[in-house]
Amino acid sequence: MGLFQPSIPPLPPGIDLAGQTVVVTGATSGIGLAVAKRIVKLHASNVIFAVRDTVKGEALKASFLADPEIRSANPKGTIQVMQLNMETYESVKTFTSEFMRRFGELHVLLLNAGGMSHQREMVSSGHEKAIQVNYLSNVMLLLELLPLLESTADKAGKPSRVTWTGSRSYRQTSLNKNPPSVSKGILNHLDHAESIPLFTRYADSKLLGLLFLRELANRYGHDKVIINSFCPNTVDTGMATSMPFYLRIPAAAIMKVKGRSPDEATSIVLNAAFVAGEETHGNLLEDCTVVPLSMFVQSDEGAKVQSQLWNETSPHSRRIFSGNPSGSRLASSALRACVAVATLVLNHGSAPVLASVFSEPFQVFSAKKFPGVIESTPLSKCFALQGIKIPIRKDGVKGRGGGGDGDGEYD
Ligand SMILES: NC(=O)c1ccc[n+]([C@@H]2O[C@H](COP(=O)([O-])OP(=O)(O)OC[C@H]3O[C@@H](n4cnc5c(N)ncnc54)[C@H](OP(=O)(O)O)[C@@H]3O)[C@@H](O)[C@H]2O)c1
C-alpha cells in the first residue's frame, strides 16, 4: 500500500437532492458527519442523523442550523436526530419502526456507522461486537427499510439507493485460511474465536458485508433499489482512537500523512450513492471504481463461504422479523430476499437450518377459521401431497423456533 492515494475525480455538476429524504448512520463524526453536511448543502429535504449519542447529534444539528453557509444553501431542509445503537437489535427495530411512523419516504440510506474492535467483545445480542455493529445490524436496517425504499422508488419513478460503507481491508480476512465448516458456522466461529489477529476482526466484518451484498444482488434485482458499497481508502478520522494505546500514535501518524480528509472522502460516498449506476448493485467500489474482488472472494472456496453466510444470516433475520409487524408489509421481492436472509439469523447458537425453499409470495389464511373459503396454492398443494403441515405463527409470539400458536392451526 503506497503512501499517497490517487486523487478523487470530481463529481458531475448539478447533483440536487431537493425532495429527497436521506438517512446517515453514524453522522456524529468522521466521514458520516462530513457527508451529512454535504447532503444538507445539496438541498436534501430531510436529513436524518441516526446516531447512538443523541446529545452529540443534537449539538451537531444546532451547529448546522447556526452555520450561515449551510442555512443559505438549504433554508427549507430539515434535520432530524434519531437514536440508533448498532450494538442491539432492539435499537435497530425501534429506529426503523419510529422512522416508518414518522416518514413516508426514504430515498437514500447510507449505512456508514461502524468501527474497529481489536479484541473479542460480546454484546447483548449474543454476538461479537464487530460482527453485530458492522454486519448484522446493517443487514437488519437494510431489510427493515427495504419496503419503504421500494415504495419510495415507485412514487419517485426511479430506484432508491442503499450505500454501505465497506473497506478494502476485507482482503485481509481470516476466513480465507481455514473457513469454518457448515456445522460450526461462520457467525458462530467469528463470535467465539479468541485468537483472531489484530485488525482481522474488522476485515472479517467488512468481508461479511460484501459477501452478503453479492448474494443479495443474486436474488434481488436493481429495478427498485440499487444497493452498493464503497471503500474510501484511508481517511483521517477518529477510527484510530479505538485501537490499543500502543498503536494509536503510529496509526494517527499514518492517517495524518496518508489519509484523505473526511471532506474529500464525501465525494467517494456521493459518487456511490448518487452517481454510480445499476452496474454497481451488489458491488464494492474502491474509491469511485468497481475493481476485481480478491482472489478468495472469486474462488470456489469464497463462493461456498458466501453461500454459507447467506444460509446462516437468513434464519437469524427471520426470527427477528417474526416478532415484527412490519414483516407483514414487506414487498414481495423484499420478502423473498428476507425469507432467505432470515435463515441467517436463526442459526445463532442452535441447530443450523439445513435447507430453505422459496416460492412466489402467497397469503396465508387459517383453514380452521376460513374452512373451504380459500383455494389451495400450488405451494400448499405441494406441501399437502408430501404430508407437510405448516404451523401458523402469529405476530408477537415469542420463543425460539417460533412456533405454532397453540391452537394447532395449520395451513
Ligand atoms: N477512516 C478510514 O480510513 C475508513 C476506511 C474504510 C472504511 N471506513 C468506514 O467508514 C465508516 C465511518 O468511519 P469513520 O472513519 O468516519 O470513523 P469515526 O469517525 O470513528 O466514525 C464512526 C461513526 O460510527 C458511529 N458508531 C460507531 N459505533 C456505533 C454504534 N454501535 N452504534 C451507532 N453508531 C456507531 C460513531 O458514533 P460515535 O460518534 O457515537 O462514536 C461515529 O459516528 C465506518 O464504517 C468505517 O469502517 C473508514
Strand order of the largest sheet: 3-2-1-4-5-6-7-8
Low-confidence stretches: 319-336, 343-361, 395-411
Q: Rough shape?
A: globular
Heteromolecules bound: NADP nicotinamide-adenine-dinucleotide phosphate
Share of helix, binned: 40-55%
**Largest sheet report:** 8 strands, mixed
Number of domains: 1
Keywords: NADP, Oxidoreductase
Protein name: Velvet domain-containing protein
Family: Belongs to the short-chain dehydrogenases/reductases (SDR) family.
Domain Velvet: 1-393
Labels describing this entry:
Velvet domain-containing protein, binds NADP nicotinamide-adenine-dinucleotide phosphate, SDR_fam, 411 residues, globular, disordered C terminus, Rossmann fold, oxidoreductase activity, alpha/beta, 43% helix, 8 strands
Q: What would you note in describing this structure?
A:
- Residues 1-393 form the Velvet domain.
- Pfam families: adh_short (PF00106), Velvet (PF11754).
- Belongs to the short-chain dehydrogenases/reductases (SDR) family.
- The structure is a single chain.
- The chain has helices spanning 30-41, 54-65, 68-73, 89-102, 129-156, 186-192, 200-219, 245-258, 262-275, 295-298, 300-322, 332-346, 378-385; strands at 21-25, 46-51, 78-83, 108-111, 160-165, 225-231, 284-286, 289-290.
- With 411 residues, the chain is of the alpha/beta class.
- The chain has one domain: NAD(P)-binding Rossmann-like Domain (Rossmann fold, 3-Layer(aba) Sandwich), CATH 3.40.50.720.
- An eight-stranded mixed β-sheet has the order 3-2-1-4-5-6-7-8, with helices on both faces.
- The chain binds NADP nicotinamide-adenine-dinucleotide phosphate.
- The site of NADP nicotinamide-adenine-dinucleotide phosphate has 27 residues, from helix 1.
